[in-house]
C-alpha cells in the first residue's frame, strides 16, 4: 500500500516538474514589455463571410482610432500580465496557449472570462487574434464581423 502511494507521488512530481519546465521556457519569450507595431483589420459580411474591407494599420494614431478594444501595450511579469489600452490598464493571467482576461461582474454571478489566443513568431513578434466584433455597418448597410490581428514587438528593459 505504501509503495503504491510513493509511486503515485513520484509520478505526480515528475509530471508537475515537466509542466513547469515547459511553461518557463515559453515564459522567457513572453517576459517584458510589448508594444503594438501593426494591426490587420478585416471586415466580413456576416451572412457569407465575404471580405468587405482589409486594412493594415502601422501608425499608433490610426490604430487607436480603429477600436478602443485594441491593446496598445502588454507587460508580462511571470504569469501575470497587464494590458494597456487607450485610457486604462487591466490585469490578466497568462495561461498558455492564451491570455485569460476577467470581466467585471456583480458579486452574485461568477466572473466572465475572455480568452485571447496568441503566437510568438520565429522573429520574436507576438501576435494576438482578438475576439470578433459583430455590428450593423451603416456604410455597407449589412451586419458585419470585424476581426483584428495585432502584432507586438518586445521592448525588453
Uncertain parts: 17-23
Record the strand order, biggest sheet.
1-3-4-5-6-7-8-10
Q: How many domains in all?
A: 2
Distance between the termini: 53 Å
**Class inferred from helices and paired strands:** alpha+beta
- Please give the share of residues in helix: 10-25%
Largest sheet: 8 strands, antiparallel, barrel
Average pLDDT number? 76
Number of helical segments?
A: 2
Strand content of the residues, in percent?
over 45%
Protein name: Lipocalin-like domain-containing protein
Structural account:
With 157 residues, the chain is an alpha+beta fold. It has 2 domains: 1-28; 31-154, no CATH class. Helices cover 23% and strands 48% of the residues. It contains 2 helices and 10 strands. It has helices spanning 2-30, 60-66, and strands spanning 32-45, 51-57, 73-77, 80-84, 89-95, 98-103, 112-120, 126-129, 133-137, 142-154. An 8-stranded antiparallel β-barrel has the order 1-3-4-5-6-7-8-10. Strand 5 (89-95) and strand 6 (98-103) form a beta hairpin. The protein is extended and about 70 Å long. It starts with a helix and ends with a strand. This is Lipocalin-like domain-containing protein. It comes from Chitinophaga fulva.
